[in-house]
């Protein structure tokens, strides 16, 4: 085994552990892991019956800025055996006040493969119904935006110009509203 391979496959060593994150050292690599939940987050792609895309706005401490995101949350942070789909619908309702009759996992992949082992699941929520106000749990201060689908990209660009941080996954989510994963238009 060469030295480069040995450094990448060395036994992991925890160098810090807090309530929600731990820092791991493995050879010359350092990365973060979640200490609870499954290490998987769900981003929810949701379009209301009147063709409006659901976005959430909130202050994110690491960025010290307000962000625009699609609704999202950790899988298994409330109930360890909760499925991705159930977690996604729960988070959608908590953050936006909308629930869904159906949730479909479209794609799972790493969020930042050089600094974390966390993965994200893109989940399409359909059969939406308004059931509450949203706004997040007690620790969150979420503003819900319902933006006409045809204007979503322009609205996001305007928010970026206003100084909001935009989660780059927004653009993938918008693409998935209009397309199947193979690139064909969605009907």
Automatic annotation (TrEMBL):
GO terms for molecular function: hydrolase activity. Residues 37-170 form the Nudix hydrolase domain. Keywords: Hydrolase. GO terms for biological process: nucleoside phosphate metabolic process; ribose phosphate metabolic process. This is ADP-ribose pyrophosphatase. The lineage of its organism: Bacteria, Pseudomonadati, Pseudomonadota, Gammaproteobacteria, Lysobacterales.
């Amino acid at each position: 085994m060469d030295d480069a391979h040995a450094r990448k496959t060395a036994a992991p060593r925890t160098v810090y552990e807090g309530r929600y994150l731990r820092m791991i050292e493995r050879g010359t690599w350092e990365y973060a892991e979640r200490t609870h939940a499954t290490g998987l987050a769900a981003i929810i792609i949701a379009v209301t019956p009147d063709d409006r895309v659901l976005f959430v706005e909130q202050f994110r401490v690491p960025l010290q800025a307000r962000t625009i995101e699609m609704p999202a949350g950790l899988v298994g942070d409330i109930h360890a055996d909760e499925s991705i789909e159930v977690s996604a619908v729960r988070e959608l309702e908590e953050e936006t006040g909308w629930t869904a009759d159906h949730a479909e996992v479209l794609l799972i992949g790493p969020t930042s493969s050089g600094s974390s082992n966390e993965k994200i699941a893109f989940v399409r929520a359909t059969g939406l119904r308004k059931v509450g106000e949203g706004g997040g749990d007690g620790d969150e201060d979420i503003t819900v935006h319902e933006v006409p689908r045809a204007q979503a990209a322009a609205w996001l660009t305007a928010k970026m110009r206003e100084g909001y941080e935009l989660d780059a996954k927004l653009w993938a989510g918008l693409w998935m509203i209009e397309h199947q994963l193979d690139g064909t238009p969605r009907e």
